[in-house]
Amino acid sequence: MKRQAASESQRLATSRRHALALGLAVPLSAGAAALAGPGTGPAAAAARAARAGHPFRDPLLSVEDRVADLLGRLTREEKISLLHQYQPAIPRLGIRSFRTGGEGLHGVAWLGEATVFPQAVGLASTWNPELIRRVGAAVGDEARGFQHERPEGWSFNLWAPVVNLLRDPRWGRNEEGYAEDPYLTGVISTAYGTGLQGEDPRRLRTAPTLKHYLANNTEKDRVTSDSVLPERVRREYYEAAFRPALTADAVTGVMSAYNLVNGRPATVDPDLGARVREWARKELLNVTDADGPNNLVGLQDYYPTLAEAGAAALKAGIDSFTNDSEDSSKTVKALTTAFDKGLIDESDLDTAVGHLLGIRVRLGEFDPGGGPYGKIDKSVIDSPAHRSLARETAGEAIVLLKNERGTLPLDAEKLTKLAVLGPLADTLYTDWYSGSLPYEVTPRKGIAERLGAAGEVTGGEGVDRIVLRDADSGRYLTAGRGEDGAVLSVTAEDPGRTGQFDVFGWGQGVVTLRSAANRRYVGLDGKVFRNDKKQPDGWFAQQQFVLEKPGRPERPEQQDDDGTRLVRYAGYETLRDDYGPERYLGTGGDDGRTAVLTTKADATRYRVTTVRDGLAEAVEAARDADAAVVVVGSMPHINGREDHDRTSMALAEEQAALVRAVHRANPRTVVVLVTSYPDTVTWEQRHVPALVWTTHAGQETGNALADVLFGDRNPAGRLTQTWYRSEDDLPGLLDYDIITSGRTYLYFRGDPLYAFGHGLSYTAFRYGAPKLPEDTLGREGSVTVSVRVTNTGERDGEEVVQLYTRQLTSRDKQPLQQLRGFQRVPVKAGRSRTVRLTLRAADLAHWDVTRGRWVVESGEYEVRVGASASDIRGRTRLRVRGETIPPRDLSATTRAASFDGYRGVRLVDESKVRGDAVGSDADRSWIVFRDVELGDGVREFTARVAREARGSGTLTVRLGSPKGAVVATAEVPSTGDRYAYRNVSARVRGARGRQDVHLVFSGELRLSSFSLR
Which UniProt keywords apply (predicted)? Predict the structure, then answer.
């Protein structure tokens, strides 16, 4: 129902009250100010807004009053139009168009040149929330810097930060997240979001949105894959990453994920409108991921029509539909149809539109001059202050993995010649969500500038330069000059510069070809090939190739190597053509000499000649130098990225060979890993004396790296993920149950290559024993853990003091240890300082599945302080007075999903709207409820079940184990539909005392709830 606008006098009086409440000077009455005509100051602005009859433009009114006023002025058609990502202008109210969704993950993206900070995983590697708050503020300012031009793709609403946990380093979007730990993720995301939002308590610099709710970190079949989350895993791990920034009001909403969670698409997860909003004190603006609503009727086949899908998403808690890019017509039509059919009503529209308008009000969009941030202009973009901050952040993010025999820091005064080598020595790569680099300080450039005239920097990229000669015609494949290059052709009798290509290996046979003529990469341009890309980029990264022997690649032992190669196009794009699953470079076109896409049968055979041996040159440079720095790593658009998970955690074969050869030539070798992910660099750890890791760190990478390598900055970055020795240490990529599978530092019992929190320094720190003011803690209390840290070396440095706890006894399986606090502290050489970290009893809570609530268990907890999860320097004990979880009582209705353990079952959607059930398609699958009090005996087993298939299945109740004594068996007949439930019962015999109760499934069925009475 429309709310009528307040009368003129009421509006003016309200303006005055709000001005007084804010402590603003109001020399005239509101009415007198209105009569006084034009003036300055908030009272005059409020008076002019009131006189115009639009209280929603009155900056002194509350957000709620302004939203209510504006909402009351909108027609139903206008409300529906605002629910699409591209919200149209409403000229009659003087309202501009608005778009949800700018990108600001580690700088403003997709709008041209802007300050590029380290990738998100690098930001978290600083373990410095105050620094990350400053980075967020800089990114927010730069987003505002575009506000007066508003280029395509710009928005006040930024889709960042990403808080999906890095539970598996093979995830293609690993660089977008912060950590495998929910506490660290929460601290860093809160800091970044706070910076993006700004300091004004009533207005927003930008409106940050957390991505992607929930349990979203696999790219394979990401729209249809199902993240199966038992209750404890969901509450303690995945939700725990989202909750901190929301409870701190550091963000303004969440984005729903693509995947399913327990059988239900995340786009219609009811938590979006319930639990997520309960965590925040202010109203949220929740958005879908791109085309999420379409997926509900497409790949997910969850609803038959867009109208039903749109209604379900709106009721679940979605406020903005990111669908069909700029075309809002399908969304508007679907929601209009949903309204006409009674699937949604006016209150549903008002709720969602109210959330949208609330954020727009807080952004100052309806304030005179755009509010407190309205005057920010493009002068802030890539400002000197932001350049300095980018260098500082990139330096703080660098992690020293290994340093033996004083290899680092390098002494510039003693180096006469330094070899800087590797495929990333002269290149800075950006990722999909990066802005354009305003300038580039490469590793070589930064090192050479730091070394200065006193020393010489030698060496190259360590990659081969080749020419490709058509084996049939004898002519060479050539490219073009200039930034735009040219379509490749087989025309030249002499290759010259345009016929030479540098071959960069990225592992598993995939290479990129960079033209020597213009240093641009060759990629697919339609059905021809052109050398016009500064780096591999685009959604499909069409600059990927494999140099393949002719014949049958699946039977290499039967191939005769005649020295020729086929050039297979290995880009991600699925082409709509007749070339089959494998596409190759052929020769065709109107002139019969153009390099075109073709089938393998018609592919051109090339004789490959190496004109520069990159490995040999690198070895020669390393042998002749005082030391060698080898810069290797990943290409963010190739080695794993959005829509593509990594299939290997190893360094590219060519890069690994380069490292080994350089190390043989010069034992004083430093390997710099520039990657978006952990790698299995086990050989390097064993043999290379110094290893340094940085993520792709933006424009100041080279300066930051030089600062660390030469000791101008003592490194203090720390890893935010476990680095494993082998893929064999990891369970399947789609296994989200970290408790059962033993994933991350919380549950992994193996020996990691580098532990969570690992990072070295050029000095050493000694820890004293951790001290507690008392050894007992009540369930509502907190305690301060203090530890004295001494810098025992000769250099000033920073230490990241980490606080972990381990619960020594529990009803439930607990983490091996869990991060509870940390502090990055500077300590001067030879000095000490006391670090104090607060530990609350509430921090020790875990989810009690028996009663469906958080619980702090009574018992002993080990309090640990150390430099990483595997480098604990001190321990003490703390007794907690909490509660004891009683035996389970299954006599009342019990949710099947609240089990203690399982095998062979899946959690599924109880209905399309809400609730989880347990589903099984396999015989002898089971769930267990431990420590059940059956008393003197129970008589009846009742279960609420559904079975879509014909025929019947069974539910068997067994005691002690899945093969234990049978005490009841209930037959489950077909109910005709997976969501059609009915109650079945069976008599129970011989069930008494305290027992582990197993429910064993036979046949396809779903179990919603049950009781044993």
Answer: Hydrolase, Signal
* 259-292 pLDDT tens trace: 999 999 999 999 999 999 999 999 999 999 999 9
Q: Which of 575, 604, 633 is the last residue of a domain?
A: 604
Strand 606-612, strand 564-569: pairing: antiparallel
Best CA proximity match to 55, nearest among 74, 68, 38, 44:
68
> Rounded to whole angstroms, how far apart are CA atoms 98 and 91?
13
Alpha-carbon distance 438 to 436, whole Å? Answer: 6
Separation of CA 429 from chain center: 19
DSSP 790-836: EE-SSS-EEEEEEEEEEESS-SS---S-EEEEEEEEEE-TT-EEEEE
Q: Give the list of residues 6+ apart from residue 670 with CB closer than 8 angstroms, or none.
A: 407, 408, 410, 627, 628, 629, 630, 688, 689, 690, 691, 692, 709
Lookup: tokens for 246 = 């929301």
Domain that holds residue 450: 394-461+613-733
Asked if 617 and 598 sit in the same domain, the reply is: no
Residue 592's Cβ-side half-sphere holds a number of Cα atoms within 13 Å equal to: 2
Last residue of a domain, one of 851, 881, 911: 881
Asked if 1000 and 962 count as a contact pair (C-beta separation under 8 A), the reply is yes
d(CA 722, CA 807): 21
Please indicate, yes or no, whether residues 238 and 202 belong to a single structural domain of this protein: yes
pTM of the model: 0.94
323 near 85, Cβ under 8 Å?
yes
pLDDT digits (tens, 9 = 90+) for 415-472: 999 999 999 999 999 999 999 999 999 999 999 999 998 899 999 999 999 999 999 9
- Both 418 and 370 in one domain: the answer is no
CA distances from 836 to 744, 800, 867 (A): 27, 12, 15
Residues constituting the chain: 1013
- Residue pair 550/582 in contact (Cβ under 8 Å)? The answer is no
Which strands sit side by side in the sheet containing 86-87, from one edge to the other?
86-87, 98-102, 157-158, 207-208
Return the bridge partners of 955, or none. 970, 1001
Give me the helix-helix angle, 182-197 and 239-247, nearest 10°: 30
Q: Does residue 682 fall inside a structural domain?
A: yes
Establish if 445 belongs to a structural domain. yes
Phi and psi angles of residue 547, each rounded to the nearest 5 degrees, phi first? -90, 110
Nearest to 622 by CA among 544, 688, 546: 688
Three-class DSSP labels, 486-526 = CECEEEECCCCCCCEEEEEECCCCCEEEEECCCCCEEEEEC
Q: What is the pLDDT of residues 998-1007, one digit of tens each?
A: 999 999 999 9
